[in-house]
Every structure is written in structure tokens, then in C-alpha cells.
């Protein structure tokens, strides 16, 4: 069975799932902010085989992983294509397997504010919130829609304030925390639209 490497029991590990099509400075910035604000030991970029809610297929996984490794060369961050190896696309399924494989590890699901706004559309989203702490990072333009989202409203009683962010990883679930971090106005959609990544490349 495929596993994440170098994840010692007892550690706290942030999981940043994404299409990374392509990876950019926004991903890098929220990763560094998440390590610090949530006091995480490590972080894993889960490069997705394809977001189940996105109609267009992403660029080749190998190409996205290579670009991610170039961009995020950091001793506490690993880039992983494990979802493709496990055959999972849905986050709830991925988390279920990872938690079984690493019983002593405290995983935290990380996402930008835009994903919290849409979170109620994910498969078994309440199960995700009930089983792993969720850290949400501010993103330009999405802070208000995220705060007003169905998931944020329903789970409002379980939100840790920004000043308590370092408690998140070891908090009893459900627990989530929105942190206002310095924002980077970068998006893969915009980079693809410029043609710097998509043009003449295999998809
Ligand atoms: N600039 C950013 N600021 C904060 N969070 C971000 C930023 N860019 C991406 N994220 C978050 O990183 C994760 C992976 O994002 P993803 O790979 O979809 O990038 P994206 O720029 O949102 O791509 P696309 O434009 O194709 O939707 C998501 O949780 C997303 O919310
Ligand atoms: O599980 C789901 O239903 C689900 C729906 C939408 C997105 N996700 C995950 O959310 C992460 C961010 O996706 P993306 O495309 O916005 O980078 C990535 O890991 C996806 O697999 C998961």
C-alpha cells in the first residue's frame, strides 16, 4: 500500500490538497503561514489527480508535481501524488486512508477561504469536519463569502479564534480556525489564462 513517507507518530501534519495547475506564490505563502500559525511540524501538498467539482482536467500529474517541487523546496514540506496512487479523488476518502495508515499522527486539513465557501458541496464534508481539524487561510476576495458560507455558519460554535490558531492541531474535533494571513493575489486560473503554463504543453 502506498504511504506518505517520513511522517513520525505524534507529529502534526498539515495537508494542503490542490490541483496546483500550476502551483504559484499563493500556495507557497499559505503553506509558510500555515506552518507558523498552526504550529505544524510538517506539511504535505496533496497534488490531486483532479478536483471532482472541476469540469476541465488538469495538466499531467507528473508535470504539476515537478513544478510544485521546484516552487516549494522546503525541509518541512513534501509534495505528494499519493491520491493518484491510492485511487482517491474525494478528500473524505483520502483522509480516511491516511488516518488509518498513520494512527499517531495529527492531520490538519488546510484550505484557502474560497474552498470554505464551497465546502458544503464536497462529498461527506461534515464527516471531514468531524474527524480532522480544518485550518482556513485568507484569500483575496473570498474572506466574506467564506465567513457566510453554510459550513462556517453550521460549525460556528466550533471555530477557534485566530489568536488560538496554535491550539487547532490538537483540538477535539470538530474544530476549525480562520486565520488572516498576509494575502497573495495569485491564482492558477489567471496564470493559465495568461498562457504561461497551458500553451503547447501536454495535458
Ligand atoms: N492566493 C491564494 N491565497 C490563499 N489560498 C490559496 C491561494 N491560491 C490557492 N489557494 C488555496 O490553495 C489550495 C489549492 O488551490 P488550487 O490549486 O485550486 O489553486 P487556485 O489558484 O485556486 O486554482 P484555480 O484558479 O485553478 O482554481 C486551495 O485550498 C486554495 O483555496
Ligand atoms: O472531496 C470532495 O468532494 C472535493 C471537492 C472539491 C475539492 N476537493 C479537494 O480540494 C482540494 C482543492 O482543490 P482545488 O482544485 O481547488 O485545488 C483538492 O485536494 C481537491 O481534491 C475535494
Automatic annotation (TrEMBL):
Pfam family, one: CTP_transf_like
Pathway where it operates: Cofactor biosynthesis; NAD(+) biosynthesis; deamido-NAD(+) from nicotinate D-ribonucleotide: step 1/1
InterPro entries xrefs: Cyt_trans-like (IPR004821), NadD/NMNAT (IPR005248), Rossmann-like_a/b/a_fold (IPR014729)
Superkingdom, taxonomy of origin: Bacteria
Domain Cytidyltransferase-like: 15-194
Any one Gene Ontology molecular-function term assigned to this protein's record: nicotinate-nucleotide adenylyltransferase activity
Keyword Transferase: yes
EC number(s) recorded for this UniProt protein: 2.7.7.18
Catalytic activity entry: nicotinate beta-D-ribonucleotide + ATP + H(+) = deamido-NAD(+) + diphosphate
Coiled-coil stretches noted in the UniProt entry, renumbered to this chain: none
BP terms from Gene Ontology: NAD+ biosynthetic process
Keywords, sorted A to Z: ATP-binding, NAD, Nucleotide-binding, Nucleotidyltransferase, Pyridine nucleotide biosynthesis, Transferase
Function summary: Catalyzes the reversible adenylation of nicotinate mononucleotide (NaMN) to nicotinic acid adenine dinucleotide (NaAD).
Similarity section: Belongs to the NadD family.
HAMAP family hit by this protein: NaMN_adenylyltr
Record protein name field: Probable nicotinate-nucleotide adenylyltransferase
